[in-house]
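for the writeup, i need someone to sanity check this before i put it in the appendix. the sequnce is what the collaborator sent (i think, or maybe the updated version? ugh). structure was predicted straight from it, no edits. if anything looks off just tell me and ill rerun, i have time this weekend
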Amino acid sequence: MAKSRRNITRLIRQIVDKAWRFADRAMWGEAVNCIEQAIQLRPKAPLYWVLKGHFLRESLRCTESEAAIRRALVLDSGFDPAWSELGRLYRDAGEYLEAADCFRRSVSIRPDFNVYTLLANAELTFDPQAALASATAALSLNPDWDEAIRIRDSAKRAIAAKRKSLQKTRPSSQRNKSKKPTNGLSNRKRGRIKKTPTAEHRKSK
């Protein structure tokens, strides 16, 4: 029995290697066919469903890709590569909020600088402040990661631009409020400063 399991493991490893060789040549259909052999041997292993989803996504078969990835999540909802792959699928479709949610789920299970970078890139489209935090998290794990540095700097520029825009759109009454003269100054300028009565005037009253 143990020998049989070892043989199956060895065979699956060979199948997966072959699938990646097809993928390296952008032969996605062949890669999918290979990985399906691995699934037949280990149908309850979420990794092979994620690989199938990845190859299907690369071949633009998005509906099938999502089905494969969700199958992996049914088998193991805490399998972080499934969440990150689902995030990539949403990102490719331009659904950045959903993509960010998936990447967030992935890094909450296992922090990874690459997935934090993917998260930051998705957040940059709708929340530069969150993107800055995610890019900083990526750089805490890999300080030399160029992509995270680029996104961090883009987030900083977007935050600064937004702040400047808000300052420009403030009502002019608010901007000039501090420049208004006080009542006393206004009275002095208008010559309406009251004179203190002299002693003589007080007696006459």
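Residues 184-196, 198-205 have pLDDT under 50 and may be disordered. The longest helix spans residues 2-24.
thx in advance!!
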